[in-house]
Amino acid sequence: MPESVLVTGGSGYIAGWCIAELLHRGYDVRTTVRSPERERFVTEAVSTEVDPAGRLGFAIADLTADDGWDAAMKGVDYVLHVASPLGAASDDPQALVAPARDGTLRVLRAATAAGVRRVVMTSAANAASPSSYASEGVTDETLWTDPDDPTLIPYRRSKTLAERAAWDYMEGYDGPTELTTVLPGAVFGPVLTPDNLGSVGIIARMISGQMAGAPRIGLEVVDVRDLVDAHILAMTSSVAAGQRFLATGEFLWMTDMARILRDGLGERGRRVRTRRIPDFAVRLTARFKDPSLREITPSLGRRNRHSTEKARTLLGWQPRPAREAVLDCADSLIAHGAV
Question: Can 159 be counted among the known catalytic residues?
Answer without folding.
Answer: yes
